[in-house]
Specification:
The protein is an alpha/beta fold. The chain contains 5 helices and 12 strands. Strands 3-2-1-10-11-12 form a 6-stranded mixed sheet, covered by helices on one side. The chain has a 6-stranded mixed sheet with strand order 4-5-6-7-9-8, covered by helices on one side.
Amino acid sequence: MVRIAHISDFHVGYANFREDLLLRAINKINESKPDAIIITGDLTDQGYYLEYKKAKEYVELLEAPCLVIPGNHDARNIGDVSFEDIFGTRFDTLELEDVAVKIIGLDSSEPDMDHGKIGRAQRIWMENEIDDANRRGFFIIIALHHHIISIPKTGRERNVLSDAGDILLTLIKNNVNLVLSGHKHMPHIWEMKNTVFATAGTVSSLKLRGKDLPSYNMIEIENQYIKIMLHDSEGNTHLLKKP
């Protein structure tokens, strides 16, 4: 069985950022001993360099291999440059060779914009990485900040991925197993064909809708089956997706 933690939307520097919630989640994740951790953006609130430095300190507390990608807040105030300085390339892969899992991280951010875009060059790179994973029989996970499919109960859709249709077609056509995103602070699950789309909530900010709580997701993969558990800030867990 493969265990992967999915956390998102720290918003370090935001007035309602809660360090205690982030540290508690980090401790819980480390106790779970996941094989990998995926962080789907908005580590910072305004993309400032000092916010990045603090976010890096938190990420370094995580004990499993991490794939970190930027969100729209991270691309503010030349934050795209700061991201590369602190975390490295804005899109990358993480392979778990022993368990045949490939995680492909995309940069969906646009400088100083809330909407997202993958773009042609990055889409071609993604397609090549997917082809490589399919040839090797790997379980394929795509990670990006912006959601590809609209999320219910999140209001008017203003900050969507502008090339979502093209990206969605590529993912479905190439039998991608799992797509992870953040952005809306709303945990949700969709299934389309053989692909599962899962969004994570915010792990450490209080920018929430209704009675939602800060949370992160823990994913278990076994024999191509996916189980996703939501862990909230009050210590509760519940099932988002089961085999």
